[in-house]
Design a protein that fits this description.
With 116 residues, this protein is α+β, with helices and mostly antiparallel strands. It has two helices and six strands; from the N terminus they run H-H-E-E-E-E-E-E. The longest helix is centred in the N-terminal third of the chain and has 15 residues.
Length: 116
């Protein structure tokens, strides 16, 4: 409750002083809307340790957590087409709790080159 109040208070003070704030969208706000290539229900394993799992397709989005080699990811779609797989962002969900503790069914984005 305190964290929610603090964010609301910060936003209110900023707006009263004539400023503005940009809040990064959450995963549910971005979801699959950024996708350009769909391929539902394909399972991947994370191929490296330290891959960042995010709320959107890019470094400007909030980090949900870190993925490690062997973590399971169900892929739904990505930002790029076939030739650009390794340079795109993939949207999907965690299929079982990750080594870092991200719960199963958590949806988010990972850079595709970290998937195999």
């Amino acid at each position: 409750m305190k964290a929610k109040y603090g964010v609301t208070l910060t936003l209110a003070v900023s707006l009263l002083l004539g400023g503005s704030m940009v809040l990064a969208p959450t995963a549910s706000a971005v979801g699959s809307s950024a996708c350009r290539f769909d391929s539902p229900n394909v399972n991947f394993k994370v191929r490296t340790s330290g891959a960042t799992f995010r709320t959107g397709p890019g470094k400007r989005y909030h980090v949900i957590g870190t993925l490690y080699r062997g973590d399971s990811f169900r892929y739904y779609c990505r930002t790029g087409g076939l030739p650009d797989f390794k340079k795109s962002w993939s949207y999907g969900k965690i299929t079982k709790r990750t080594r870092a503790g991200i719960p199963a069914a958590t949806k988010g984005w990972v850079y595709s080159k970290y998937l195999e």
